[in-house]
Every structure is written in structure tokens, then in C-alpha cells.
Write a structure and sequence with these properties.
Layout lengths: L8 H22 L5 E6 L10 E4 L5 E6 L6 H23 L8 H19 L12 H8 L10 H6 L10 H17 L21
Parallel strand pairs: 1-3
Antiparallel strand pairs: 2-3
Length: 206
């Protein structure tokens, strides 16, 4: 989406080519079709570490927002764009199965699976798969809220100074929960893309 001319023509063409190649590859792996994908410039909706972010609210539409002025964008977008699309397309697949979910456990599993799938594209965990705090302590805090739909998604996933939750807590917990599950049960993020979150509950203690 570039009607405003915020992307130079050459960059827009490169973005389209890289995106189309990634979409074709991951749509085949995830057995997906019928997905609308929007890429557009929106600096306030990107990660400062990458100049890019993704969002998938349904099983038929996703967006990737870009900030070409971010100093990290120029040197990293050819890695970040396919990785972001991999993550978001996994969400699309999960939306078409059990859904993203409304409880903390369901969100942890959806994000953990998407990160594990994304890691295959980028060659390692995404930057938000880690946090500064002890994961076992954070899991103990999360445990009483696992079945709650009122757990507070922004605080758990983006951080809360008032709540003492560091940035990326939910992403890091989800990544580790699914990693332990895959060690325990085998398979990968595609194998378990449609699995209900309940089956992951005991993987932390395994």
C-alpha cells in the first residue's frame, strides 16, 4: 500500500518481490490460501529494534507495518520481512483452527507456536523470545491466570512497570512453553498448528 508515495519505487518493488516469495513458500507449508496481506508505512506501529511489526486479527487478513526511516530497517528488512510474514501466517493458520484464544494460556501457545515457526525462517529465536527476568518465576506468576480471559494482554506481552512485568514477558514464556512441549512430544510448529492450547499446559514441568 503506497498510494502516498512513502516508499521509493525501487524499495517498494523489492519489498513486493521478497514478500511474494515468502508468502508463496509459507502458504504452501501451512496449507493456506485466501489471505489478504497489507504492507504499508506506519512508523508508530513498528518495533524500534527492526522498523517493522506484524498483526493478524483474523484467519483471512494480516498486516505488516514498516518504518524505512528506522536505522535498523535498511540493513535488516530482507530478514525481518520473511520472518514477520512467517509468524503472522502461522497466526492465520491457527485462527482457522482453534483460534488465537482469549485466555493467557491460549495466547502463550499461539505466540509460542508462531515464534517457533518464525525461528525456522530467521535461523533462531526472534528478539522478543527473551526477557530480562527469570522465566520460572514469571511462569509461577502466570500460572493462576492461565485460564483467565482478563489477564491483561498488553501488560503480559508488552510489559508493565506498574505490574512488574518486563517487556516481552508473554512472548518469552510462550516461546519457552512451546519449546519444552516440542522437546517432550516431538514434531514442530506446523505439526501442532491446530492443537488446542490445553495440551500444552503441563509442558513447563514436562
Amino acid at each position: 500500500m503506497n498510494a502516498g508515495g512513502l516508499l521509493p519505487d525501487e524499495l517498494a518493488d523489492e519489498l513486493r518481490a521478497v514478500a511474494e516469495a515468502a508468502l508463496a513458500w509459507h502458504a504452501a507449508r501451512l496449507d493456506l490460501d485466501g489471505v489478504d496481506v497489507a504492507l504499508y508505512v506506519s512508523p508508530s506501529w513498528t518495533l524500534p529494534e527492526t522498523g517493522m511489526a506484524g498483526y493478524t486479527p483474523t484467519g483471512h487478513w494480516l498486516q505488516v507495518t514498516l518504518d524505512p526511516t528506522n536505522p535498523h530497517f535498511a540493513g535488516g528488512w530482507r530478514t525481518e520481512l520473511p520472518a514477520t510474514l512467517a509468524h503472522e501466517l502461522h497466526h492465520v493458520r491457527r485462527w482457522r483452527g482453534p483460534g488465537y484464544g482469549t485466555t493467557l494460556l491460549e495466547a502463550l501457545v499461539s505466540e509460542g507456536l508462531a515464534q517457533q515457526y518464525e525461528a525456522g525462517e530467521r535461523g533462531g529465536p526472534p528478539p522478543y523470545a527473551t526477557t530480562s527476568a527469570n522465566l520460572d518465576e514469571l511462569w509461577r506468576r502466570a500460572h493462576p491466570l492461565l485460564d483467565s480471559p482478563d489477564y491483561g494482554h498488553p501488560a503480559w506481552f508488552f510489559g508493565s512497570e506498574a505490574g512488574g512485568l518486563p517487556r516481552w514477558t508473554g512472548y518469552a514464556l510462550g516461546h519457552e512453553l512451546v519449546r519444552r512441549f516440542l522437546v517432550w512430544q516431538g514434531g514442530d510448529a506446523v505439526t501442532w498448528a491446530d492443537a488446542p492450547a490445553e495440551g500444552f499446559r503441563d509442558a513447563w514441568s514436562g
